[in-house]
Amino acid sequence: MIRTIALTVGLLCIFADISAQNLTLSPYSRFGIGEVFQSTSARNMAMGDVGQATYSYATINRLNPASYADLLYTTLDVSGFTQLSQLKTRNDKENQFTAGFQNVMFGFPSNGPIVLTMGFSPYSAVGYDISTQYEIEIADSTRTGLANYTSEGGLNQAFLGVAARLLHSRLKVGANGYYTFGNLLYRWESVVLNTSTTEFSSIRVDEATFVAGGGVHGGIIYTDTLSGKRKGKSKTFDKPITLLRLGGSVDYSFELQGDRLRTLNNNLGTLGILDTIGGGLELGGVTLPPKYGFGVTLTQLGKWEISAEATYQNWQNFSYFNDDLNLSSGGLRLAAGGEWIPDITSNKYFNRVAFRIGGYRNDTYLNVDGNDITDVGFTFGLGLPASRKVINQFNREAAYSRVNLGFGFGRRGQLKDGLPLEELYFRGRIGFTINERWFRRTRVD
After folding, report:
1. DSSP category for residue 290
2. Less packed terminus of the chain by CB within 10 Å, N or C?
3. Are 220 and 173 in contact (CB under 8 A)?
4. Which residues of the chain register pLDDT less than 70?
5. What's the pTM value of the predicted model, to 2 decimals?
């Protein structure tokens, strides 16, 4: 236990240090509230980020709060990520690297049908550094200007969840209450040169936004047995049990209230005033559209799982203070994935490794020059057992503690579709799932 706690604290310190970096470096994060993350564990990520109906009694799946009711053990799930991206234009390309903290989640089953969870994760991030050169007419002469656009920050979410098993565990319901908060910082700077006098004129606009607000996320999962049944009143089955699971969820965020402060800095030089921009403090808010999800899963307990799902979020209902954002409705995400474990009770270590694969297509809310931006990707990964020995009746939870590795390749936007930018990325995830039995009833014969 002491080693487990020490490892967890060490990991949290590492991820806290990493999270000080920008979580994204994509120019596409300029729109809306930036790049929106999937709030999933490393296990779900390796399966295409599916989670509306997936099954696991040893990991926390935040995509559908009803799945918390599957937990059998007190669970800690913590993870981080790395991403290598290549940004391509028609004339140039650039490689970028970023890394950060992804999530930390705790699950606490009780001796009854109730399960409690809590956690924290990034919700979105902005982060880019773009420079462009332009020509401007001033006093009957053409001057060269250089514009630079940068940003940093993002939104985070802290949540508290509860789930329960009903109808002999066939029906599971759950809900999250969460709090979204964060800062978004944008800067635009322009410098105009006078090549004959080497003088210059510059203007810089800083925009700092802080918003915060709550929301609720509810889910339901129904499970039915397709094959396998108990032998009389025993806890064993006449053959492996296969389940069909149907799941759905609704995520509704209240308006995020906050303020936006614009500041203007001018260095006029001898070229005169280039622009006039209003500034000051503006009160307002951000409205996130509701998100709906539905999924289906086939699983043979402890052996394999296949899942498919669809989620939808109409981003035309998004508002950001009084800005005219002209976002695409987008928001439709299709994903499928699966997991296979050769033999979870084997004495051989690699027979207990979980092999995972998945894929997704996400119609984002981004629209550039009339073209919608689509994000497509392929994922795979491993769940490595943290224990070297096979389980027994006294330490079953030890078999489900795992080091989860996830990898994904994706593309956002395509040059051939007439877009000015194509982003190719490779993403890696590492997560640690630690299971313990904290609330155990003991009997004395």
Report:
1. P
2. C
3. yes
4. 1-22, 136-142, 194-201, 229-239, 267-279, 388-399, 439-445
5. 0.85
Q: Quick one: which of 35, 188, 187, 21 has its CA closest to 126?
A: 35
What's the CA dihedral at 276, 281, 282, 286 to 10 degrees?
Answer: 110
Tell me, yes or no, whether 444 lies in a domain. Answer: no
Please check whether residue 192 lies inside any domain of the structure. yes
pLDDT at residue 439, as a whole number = 58
Identify the pLDDT of residue 233.
53
Q: For residues 243 and 228, is the Cβ–Cβ distance under 8 A? A: no
Region at 27 (left for phi over 0; alpha for psi -120 to 50; beta for the rest): alpha
pLDDT value for 51: 94
The per-residue pLDDT for 406 is 96
Domain with 272, as residue range(s), is: 2-436
* Strand spans (E) along 254-328: 256-267, 280-287, 291-300, 304-312, 319-320
Total tally of structural domains belonging to the chain:
1
- Residues 102, 104, 109, 110: is their CA dihedral positive or negative? negative
